[in-house]
């Protein structure tokens, strides 16, 4: 038996996974345990969970793979330092972070109370973008595919691409620091007043409210080259010369200002964090999204032409741009696409582990990631006991408790409540891996209600009003409801809703007629599938509105967090396994017949 522990450590979205004889057993992000979004540092709690799921201790692990290699591209780093003479503070911070990456074993052993001499695992530093590529290709259903990773930066690269065949990945090209599509998008995100780490998805959601009227300016910021690569107009950025302040250790990740004063001279004054959003901001967001797509598909066209392949695996933080992902079939010659549920840095833990298993140890492939439920889980019986243990507190908050006798009774009851307008916290089985709630840690609602988006944004999620919600659809109904037809199990693509269907599901149709769909099969998640089926039988709509079970916090992990979130928001029902909690007053103020 071979146990491999994979880590994304000392970086944002810290995470861990455990692989046993080439099969993934568990994976989780540290933020879910620490309750701090995008938690950065050593993922001790995620490691603790993964080892428990494997029935092992740190002393049983054979290999530890980390998705960073400080030694990678040393010559390019040295030449850059010689030519650019970056600030001493920038060099000092990077060297300190690299030192931690080279030696996490002492800290892990101490945190897990394992004597250091008992830790026999070999430590492997896997280049950041190779780990990204592996996180998609080695768990995909493809034996051969083009592989592309695009993100901010990792190991002095912002992109890597090549061809995956069997157990090998052949690298064909790279984009080196200081040029980066991810950093371009992050700089525009900051410019638009969204300063929290990971806020790029807000710009993506805001972009359809504007028009791409600033493309001439965007072309000065991002330059495309004949070989498929791109470069930045560096006068608009700080990172290459002054450096950017970054906090990656033991808490919420923080990134200093990336853009230079020249960007404001080009685009006008940056938006203050709490200032109103104006039409010009929407136009800049739309222009940035259009520029990103132009560069992204420029690269993909070259990769496809040179590889001659029609299968594509995507990873890296930019692979979370689901709007661009949804246009791959329309704008390239690729005809099959796979992206893992955690395409960003968290997923590098899995990629690093599978690089060790396949490329270093020479083992064949035997695993396909066709589901996302790799986190902590609770059975129906455990959840019923949890509710029983908290009955007094629950009833004191004005809630009724009911128990469904079987799955049929459960889905019929919940589907009927959703059809009447109820907002439902849905907590089932094992937590999802990656940034999306996919039917195990979800808030569910009726997509037919025009006011449901505002209800959720204002009273449940408490977030910006422009942000859209996702349609979870039965896989066999996709072609009838969307203009594209594909498997999208991890909610990583945005498709256009068919024009004649948009008015039927206004709560999950964005302003541009699109929806970031999740396709649901019975094999992957039978209870979730049956719930959507029950809703379809009542309403004729094979879709539920699905959003993550949280309120400005990481997605809930444990039943305690689900109960707390339910009680402090205005959800109508909380479903823990087959146990149903409902507020005594019955329907909340928004719970009315959707057709009224």
* Low-pLDDT windows of residues: 592-596
Q: Quick one: overall form?
A: globular
**Tally of distinct domains:** 3
Major sheet: arrangement of strands: 16-25-24-17-19-23-20-22-21
Output the structural class.
alpha+beta
Distance between the termini: 61 Å
How much of the sequence lies in strands comes to: 15-25%
Residue-averaged pLDDT: 94
Largest sheet: 9 strands, mixed
Q: Quickly give the CATH architecture of the largest domain.
A: Alpha-Beta Complex
Number of DSSP E strands: 25
Helix content: 25-40%
Task: Enter the CATH topology name of the largest domain.
Answer: DHBP synthase
Would you write up a description of this structure?
Residues 592-596 have low confidence and may be disordered. The protein starts with a strand and ends in a 13-residue tail after the last strand. It contains 21 helices and 25 strands. Helix 6 packs across helix 14, helix 7 runs antiparallel to helix 11 and helix 17 (407-419) crosses helix 20. The protein is globular. The relative contact order is 0.12. The chain has a 9-stranded mixed beta sheet with strand order 16-25-24-17-19-23-20-22-21, with helices on both faces. A 5-stranded mixed beta sheet has the order 3-2-1-4-5, sandwiched between helices. The protein has a 5-stranded mixed beta sheet with strand order 8-7-6-13-14, with helices on both faces. Strand 9 and strand 10 form a beta hairpin. It has 3 domains: 3-133 and 349-371, ATPase, nucleotide binding domain (Nucleotidyltransferase, domain 5, 2-Layer Sandwich); 140-339, ATPase, nucleotide binding domain (Nucleotidyltransferase, domain 5, 2-Layer Sandwich), CATH 3.30.420.40; 375-583, Alpha-Beta Complex (DHBP synthase). The protein is an alpha+beta fold.
């Amino acid at each position: 038996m071979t146990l491999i522990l994979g880590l994304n450590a000392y970086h944002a979205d810290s995470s861990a996974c455990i692989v046993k004889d080439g099969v993934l057993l568990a994976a989780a992000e540290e933020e879910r345990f620490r309750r701090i979004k995008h938690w950065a540092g050593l993922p001790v709690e995620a490691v603790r969970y993964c080892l428990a799921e494997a029935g092992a201790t740190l002393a049983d692990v054979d290999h530890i793979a980390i998705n960073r290699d400080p030694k990678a591209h040393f010559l390019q780093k040295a030449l850059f330092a010689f030519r650019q003479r970056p600030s001493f503070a920038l060099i000092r911070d990077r060297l300190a972070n690299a030192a931690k990456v080279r030696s996490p074993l002492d800290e892990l052993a101490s945190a897990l109370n394992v004597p250091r001499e008992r830790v026999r695992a070999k430590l492997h530093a896997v280049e950041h973008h190779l780990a990204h590529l592996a996180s998609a290709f080695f768990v995909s259903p493809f034996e051969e595919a083009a592989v592309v990773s695009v993100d901010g930066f990792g190991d002095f690269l912002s992109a890597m691409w090549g061809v995956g065949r069997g157990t090998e990945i052949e690298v064909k090209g790279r984009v080196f620091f200081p040029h980066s599509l991810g950093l371009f998008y992050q700089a525009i995100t900051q410019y638009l007043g969204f300063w929290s780490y990971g806020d790029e998805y807000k710009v993506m959601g805001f972009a359809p409210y504007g028009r791409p009227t600033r493309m001439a300016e965007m072309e000065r910021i991002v330059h495309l080259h004949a070989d498929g690569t791109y470069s930045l107009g560096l006068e608009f950025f700080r990172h290459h010369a002054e450096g950017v302040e970054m906090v990656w250790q033991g808490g919420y990740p923080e990134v200093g200002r990336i853009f230079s004063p020249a960007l404001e001279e080009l685009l006008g004054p940056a938006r203050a964090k709490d200032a109103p959003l104006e039409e010009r901001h929407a136009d800049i967001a739309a222009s940035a999204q259009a520029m990103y797509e132009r560069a992204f598909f420029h690269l993909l066209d070259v990769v496809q032409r040179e590889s001659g392949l029609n299968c594509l695996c995507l990873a890296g933080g930019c692979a979370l741009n689901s709007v661009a992902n949804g246009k791959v079939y329309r704008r390239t010659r690729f005809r099959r696409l796979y992206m893992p549920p955690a395409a960003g840095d968290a997923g590098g833990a899995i990629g690093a582990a599978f690089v060790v298993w396949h490329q270093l140890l020479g083992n064949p492939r035997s695993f396909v990631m066709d589901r996302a439920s790799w986190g902590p889980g609770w059975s129906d019986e455990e959840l019923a006991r949890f509710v029983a243990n908290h009955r007094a507190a629950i009833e004191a908050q004005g809630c009724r408790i009911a128990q469904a006798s079987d799955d049929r009774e459960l889905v019929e009851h919940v589907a009927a409540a959703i059809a009447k307008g109820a907002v439902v916290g849905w907590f089932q089985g094992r937590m999802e891996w990656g940034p999306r709630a996919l039917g195990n840690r979800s808030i569910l609602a009726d997509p037919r209600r025009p006011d449901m988006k505002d209800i959720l944004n204002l009273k449940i999620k408490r977030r910006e009003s422009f942000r859209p919600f996702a349609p979870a659809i039965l896989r066999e109904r996709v072609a009838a409801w969307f203009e594209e037809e594909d498997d999208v199990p991890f909610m990583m693509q945005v498709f256009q809703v068919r024009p004649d269907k948009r008015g039927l599901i206004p709560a999950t149709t964005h302003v541009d007629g699109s929806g970031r769909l999740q396709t649901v099969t019975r094999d992957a998640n039978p209870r979730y599938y049956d719930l959507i089926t029950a809703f379809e039988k009542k309403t004729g709509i094979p879709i539920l509105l699905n959003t993550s079970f949280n309120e400005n916090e990481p997605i809930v992990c444990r039943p305690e967090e689900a109960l707390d979130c339910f009680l402090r928001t205005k959800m109508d029902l909380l479903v823990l396994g087959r146990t149903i909690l409902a507020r005594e007053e019955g329907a909340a103020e928004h719970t009315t017949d959707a057709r009224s």
